[in-house]
From TrEMBL:
Protein name: 4Fe-4S binding protein
Alphabetized UniProt keyword annotations: 4Fe-4S, Iron, Iron-sulfur, Metal-binding, Repeat
Record carries keyword Repeat: yes
Pfam family, one: Fer4_21
Lineage per the UniProt record: Bacteria, Bacillati, Bacillota, Clostridia, Eubacteriales
The 4Fe-4S ferredoxin-type domain, residue ranges: 10-39, 40-69
Keyword 4Fe-4S on entry: yes
Length: 83
């Protein structure tokens, strides 16, 4: 395992069950990393998200949080996904 792949970073995680698809997060993201999926919930493009937290502060429902990622192009760390 390379040193880079061991690096842990955080990216935006949307709790879809409580998202009201208001679109506020999509407007503030400087990288266009969030879109409203099928008009139902916000979906984060993990390849684009840099974890700047702007969406987290903007969400009126407070259902965006930063979660630890595994690896350079990894998925959310399962240990962090307990609900
Ligand atoms: S954390 Fe920043 S880059 Fe990532 S989705 Fe939110 S606003 Fe966009
Ligand atoms: S700002 Fe919050 S409630 Fe609105 S679309 Fe984004 S995640 Fe959903």
């Amino acid at each position: 395992m390379s040193e880079k792949s061991k690096f842990l970073k955080k990216k935006a995680f949307v709790d879809r069950d409580y998202c009201v698809a208001c679109g506020a997060c999509t407007k503030v993201c400087p990288l266009g990393a969030i879109e409203i999926h099928s008009g139902i919930f916000a979906k984060v493009n993990l390849d684009k998200c840099v974890g700047c937290r702007k969406c987290e502060f903007e969400c009126p429902a407070s259902i965006i949080e930063m979660k630890v990622m595994e690896g350079e192009n990894g998925k959310y760390d399962k240990k962090e996904e307990v609900s």
